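User: quick one, fold this
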Amino acid sequence: MIYDFFTFEPMKVIITSATDLEVQPLKNLVEKSDLKNIHFHTSGVGILQSCFSIQRMIVEEKPDFILQVGIAGTFDEHCVLGDVVVVEEEFSGSCGVEENGEWKSLVDLNLGEKISLKNPFLKEYNLLHLPEVKAITIDEITTNKNRIQQLKNKYNPFLESMEGASLHYCGLQYNVPFLQMRGISNIAGERDKQLWKIKDAVVNVCEKSFMQLQKLVR
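Assistant:
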């Protein structure tokens, strides 16, 4: 068990997810275990909701560690659906403009400061040694082939989600250790839901998250 150095209280861990669906198997596992001081937080879907919700959670709950659990689409057409990864670096793929077939961010337009959303806590907290990938956060799930190619050219992302950058931004601003763990549910742009593996992605990411918690608070 990891304890706070000053209070000798168990490390306070908050599991954040966009929806309850994505963490229900993990809740069941935690409830049946002897893990202590594990709390759950639902941020809501999308950048606006999740960024505010995660920021408020950090201020009010003062976690020692945040684990974001959820599913995501991948840009890698050869990826095995259901696999679980952690996010090394996030990019914002929604805020900008499309000009002459090219996607330009606020930084490209000299309208924003370049901010790194790399996770500096991976070496210490990727306890399962899961693959570390790049991701983008967007407010509209990508379906257009041209848009997908623009994002690949610009960021070379492996995943897309709607809340990942919110976690990275808030965690970095408040210097709270965090880890974003994702189960891969679908190929970006694929709209035939029969080809998605949502159940596999949810079950697998929850099982890996539980293993992470067991190592973290052992």
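User: anything notable?
Assistant: The chain has a mean pLDDT of 93.
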